[in-house]
Each structure stands twice: as structure tokens, then as C-alpha cells.
Amino acid sequence: MSVIVYVPLDSSACALGADAVAQAIAREAERRGLAVELRRNGSRGMYWLEPLVEVVCGEQRLAYGPVTAEAVAGLFDAGFLSGAAHPLALGPTEAIDFLARQQRLTFARVGVVDALSIAEYVAHGGFVGLARASTMTPEAVVKEVTDAGLRGRGGAAFPTGIKWKTVLDTPAEQKYIACNADEGDSGTFSDRMLMEGDPYCLIEGMAIAGLAVGATQGYIYLRSEYPRALDILESAIRAAREIGYLGSNVMGSGRAFDLEVRLGAGAYICGEETAMLESLEGKRGIVRAKPPLPAIAGLFGQPTVINNVISLASVPIILAKGAAHYRDFGLGRSRGTLPFQLSGNLKRTGLVELAFGVTLRELLFDYAGGSASGRPIRAVQVGGPLGAYLPEDQFDTPLDYEQYAAMGAMIGHGGIVAFDDSVDMAQMARYAMEFCAVESCGKCTPCRIGSTRGVEVIDRLLAGDDRGRQLALLESLCDTMEKGSLCAMGGMTPYPVRSALKYFPRDFGIDTSRAA
Amino acid sequence: MSELHQDEIIAREIAAGRDAPGALLPILHAIQNALGWIPPQATRMLADALLLSRAEVHGVITFYHHFRTHPPGRHVVQVCRAEACQAVGAARLEAHAKASLGVDYGETTADGAITLEPVYCLGNCACSPSVRIDDEIAGRVDCDGFDRIVERLRAEEVSA
Questions:
Q1: What's the domain range around B81?
Q2: Which family does it belong to (chain B) (predicted)?
Q3: Are A361 and A397 in contact (CB under 8 A)?
Q4: CA A305, CA A285: separation in Å to the nearest integer?
Q5: Of A274, A421, B46, B87, which one's alpha carbon is 20 to 30 angstroms from that of B151?
Q6: A3-101 is a CATH 3.40.30.10 domain
Q7: Which 3 state secondary structure label does DSSP give B14?
Q8: Residues of chain B contacting residue A412, judged by C-beta atoms under 8 Å apart
Q9: pLDDT tens for residues B72-88?
Q10: Any idea where the domains of chain A sit in the sequence?
Q11: How would DSSP label each residue in A208-238?
Q12: CATH, domain range A330-420
């Protein structure tokens, strides 16, 4: 009988050599005449251990990592196929502290199953939610999602059930489900991990959404920066269609839903929902004024559910286990879990799925183990390039949408980027404006012109040219962008700028001794 | 590649994709996948086929960072400029990449081997700094690592 060995196919694992490791294992097994069945899973999200190879031994999966292609022969010599000791041995995967302490709902299967195996997906609870939804009325499916308290995981945190209800209640010949997979925020990679590691979960979530609102066609709008996710999604969609999870008669329900992946083309703004719709229609990704809401007049003018990858991927478990199961995680009005993504200057970077309410300090120190450089962590950007920079005295605020909003920050997509004390926060503020200038769609003046002027004002401020005046100008500019921009691109660029100024004024050459 | 041959490929991709809703982006991707860039005559051909103005097609091509209106080198190397990479030395890597290749962003090395481009996040943030070489992503790339990638690309060409 062959031994089952898992080697990730995840982009980041492969960026560290996972494909080469898989090839080396296959070659070495053949040379030694050993029967090995290679399965390609997603990543468990412990990137300091990638490529993480797992061997199935009885009921357990034993982990070895980080494995290089050069180390493979030695692993065979040591007898890793029967779980033998080796310097790279990490013991049972599920017992690794970083993983064992998580609350994985949406990511329950990521890194566990062979990404493209429908059999493994089903064996781990897959398509239970869709099977249930296919027997329910659309109203009942929407109610289940509403009752679970799921809010959009893409950043805006709008209640998903309310959005779905609007689409359900809007009569139309054709409705659409549009999955926003344009994960452009620096420090976020959970969409990519989910799509690469558990593509059927997204497909199932979208099919449930389709049944819930009466949409027969779905689009996944995927970033062109994710070529591997594209290949995996397209293979998974084909396989799901062949078996009848997609197509004209979804799971024998008599109802139709099909899916197509559309590639973006390297424009950050297309992560904004209306810009994404324009792009899906084959146009420049320029934001639309709202109203009308996309739920009423969205893609090609039709009612459209637009959700982020993680929102849609959270739906199967809600339908499978019921609203209450999901709602019982979290606190306040932030229900369920969020996959937090730890990156930047940290010892243990990766993905941590936990209920809302965890603090930055726990994530940065208990999970990530502090900075990679060994120096103090000075600033943390939460929520992508338009998120605020937080100093250490804010690390204890529980991660909850309302509490973060109250301190002028946002959780966004759950991306957390840490910087040590070598960071120049004035340069990070300048970069935020520069990024906005590069990525603005150009439709509204505050964003298009404001960001360009913002870079100039910060440059003059740093040159020490009439500081008081430049500071007043920068404040006024930020006000204009925040209040006058058409969408969050210009409206939130002041977040990183203002937080950098507020918490790290010395980096801008501002004398804090005179401050009140 | 002769312009005639290019025209055939563009026409083929237009014919294959024109009937899909929102066809322009998928066709542009197909053309760039086949040719490596979007040649100027594609604007006119697309406008005619999709009943758009040339200005509209031009507007779309130039709006997106991904589409190139000049032929790239034999390999495209993108260096991530986003925050997670900056937190672990991306600025140094960018400066090194430009200096060692002798080009700025958007330019191609004198031997035609490598076009250097900036990119704002490859989703490889947990293994920063990140570089994309054609469709392959590399993680934890320092200056020496970058040089090894470039050496490998050039060595592959010599042996090919």
C-alpha cells in the first residue's frame, strides 16, 4: 500500500520551493522502489515552516519542515515515510501550537485536503451546505446567512444577509453573483490561500448564493497577479460542473448556476465593487456613483450580489452547521471568525483564523513570536495600504469592527503588517499618497489630484520648508480627500497618513516637546 | 514577428472571444498572452469588432497596469513595492534590481533579456520580499537572491 504524502501547491509554499520538493519526493520514491502517493494540498498557513511536508501515519499526519529538495534523500534515509525522527520533524501537524490554538471555520479544510480532490472535499464536510440549501426556499437560505451575523470580509463589513435580501427582493430576468477576488491589499493573502487550497469551498459558497437570490451566473473577478489560483479555480470549476455541483441542475435541485473566472489586469481600484463591475463589463475600472446599489442595478445593469472570497467561503459552513454555530464565535456585532494574516517583520508569519476579539498583541507576540529582526515592533498597519498605522499602546484593543472604527482604524480584510523600529513613518505616509496617485481611477478630483499634491506636501514638510504651513495644508488636504472622494480609495488614504502623523510625529521632523 | 502574423493572432483571439459579455478584457488578456504585448493595430481591430470607439479601447488598454503597449524582454521580472515587502527590505531590493540590471521600471535590459516592472502585492506577503519571474513567484528574495535569479534566466537562454 502506498504512503500518502502531502506537499503544498500554494503559491507561497512554491515560492519557497514546494514544487521542487514534490518532484524530489516522487523521484526519490521511484529510485528506492517505494510506493508514495503525492497529494497537493493548500498551505496550513505556517509559512516559516514551508515547504511543510506531511506524511499520513495511521490516524495522524506528521509534519516535516521547512523541507528543501536537497533534504529529501535524507528524509527517506531516516525513514520519514513511517514517521521516523529527523531534525526537520515537527510531530503531528495539528498539535503544532500555532495551529492548535486557532478557531478554523472558513479555513477548516485549507492545507488539509488535496485542493483539487472533490472526494477529499466531500469527505471533510464539503457540499453539505449546498445540499441543504438546495432543499430550502431562497428566503430561508438568506435568513440563515442573516442570522449567522456574517458581515462582508472584504473590508466594508456590510451585513451579507441584508445584501442578499435586496437582490432576492429585486425582480429581474437575470441576476448575478460576483466574487471580488481582487485581493490587492498588501499584507493580505487569505483569499489566495483559500482559492488555491480549498477552491470547492468558494464554488460551493457561490452556488449557495446563487440559489439564495435566484442568480444563475457567477463571476470570480480574480487578480492577474495570482496565476496559480487561476489554474486551480478553472480546474475545480470544470470538475464541479462535470459532477453536477454546477450547471443546469445544481445537485438535482432543478435550478441552474454556473461560474466563470475573469481576470483583472493589475488595477488596485478594481477591488472597489463598482470599479470591479465596470472591469467585468470590459471597461476601465472607474468607480460608479451610488445609488443605485449594485444589489439593485449591478453587473450589466442587473441585480448583483458582490461579496469577497472569504465572505462567500464562510457560507458553506453556515448552511452546513446552522447560523447559531457560526454566530456563537465573536463579540458584539462582529460575529464569527476572521482569518488574520500576519506579515512584514515577524518571526512567524502566516494565517491565523480566530474569533473576533483577539488583540494585536496576542497575534504579534503569542502567534507570530515578535519581530523577525529581534528589534522592537514600532508600528503595525492593519487593514491594507489604506489602513491606519498603530503604535504599541494600541495593541491591546480587541479586534472588532466597531472598536477599531472608534480609534480611526479599520480591520478591513484582516491583513496585519508589522514594522520594527528601523521604519521611517514619514516615508510610509508618503508611500500611501504615492500609492493612491498610482492606483486612483481618476474619476474624482480629491483622490486623483489630492494624492499627487499629498506627495508634494509631504516632501516639502520633510524638507523643512515652512513646516507649520505644510502641516496645515496636509490636514486640509486629508479632510478634502476623506470627505470629498467618491469611494474608499481617496476617502481612506488619509488613514495611514494621519495615523503616521499622529503617532510618529518625530519622523516628520515635528518637535513634540512643544505639543500640549 | 511580422505584423501580418500579429494581425492573424489578434483576429483569431477576437473571433474566439467577441461573443462573451464584457469581452474586451478577456480578449486583451488573450492577445497579450499570445504576443507578450498589445500591438497598436489591435486598438483599431478591437474597436471595429466590438463596436467601440478607438478612444474607448485605448482607454481600457492604458488604464490597466498589466497591459503593455511595448514588447517586453524575453522575461518579465516584477519586484513588489507594497508595505509587507517594504517592512523587510523591499526598498533596498528595488534599488539593487534597478542598478544591477541598469534599467528603471518599465524598461528592458540592453540584451533584451529582462523587463523590470513594479508590482503592488503578489499575495506572497508572508514570505517577503517577493519577486515574480514570468508566472513564477519567488519569496524571501534578498539582493544576492535577485542576482541568482537573473543569472539563472540568462543561463537558461544560453543553453536553450
A1: 75-157
A2: Belongs to the complex I 24 kDa subunit family.
A3: no
A4: 18
A5: B87
A6: yes
A7: helix
A8: none
A9: 999 999 999 999 999 99
A10: 3-101, 123-328, 330-420, 425-508
A11: HHHHHHT--EEEEEE-TT-HHHHHHHHHHHH
A12: 3.10.20.600
